[in-house]
Amino acid sequence: MKSLFVNGVLICMAAVLSLGTGLWGCGKKDWPEPRLHEDRFQWTQLQHQRYDHCLDVRALLDGAASNLRFVTLEWMEMENGEDCPDCPFTATGRARLDDATAEFKRQNGVIRIVYCGWEPNVSYRWRLVGGNKYVGLGTTISEVQFSR
Hints:
Blueprint: H1 2-24, H2 36-39, E1 41-51, E2 54-63, E3 68-78, E4 93-97, E5 104-107, E6 110-116, E7 123-132, E8 139-141, E9 145-147
Antiparallel strand pairs: 1-2, 2-6, 3-4, 3-7, 5-6, 7-8, 7-9
């Protein structure tokens, strides 16, 4: 009779423990969602110089600069050599740059790009497109710049 009681208590304790552990694993499980205000960055300052066929850009990122995964330099040639701020920007060329490319350097939220693939006597409008490591946050586009 005593062993039947002990067996009953052990079975009861095992049931309670397994039920308890099963409940700890229950609940809603979703993929983590990015915190928009904490995970985004924006271009705040762009400075550039032009040397023949090279564009030298220094850009400052504000916000979550460490979330920058890549930069795409987009440009369009200006046939008349003059800037047209009211004209729509239509990229005619692109270069994707990241930590693995020689043209791209980053340090403490400052991005430096030295791209040498332009025609020396041609004027360009250009912009930077930054890709976030959280793909769902999309890209961050700088203001369009002009370089002669």
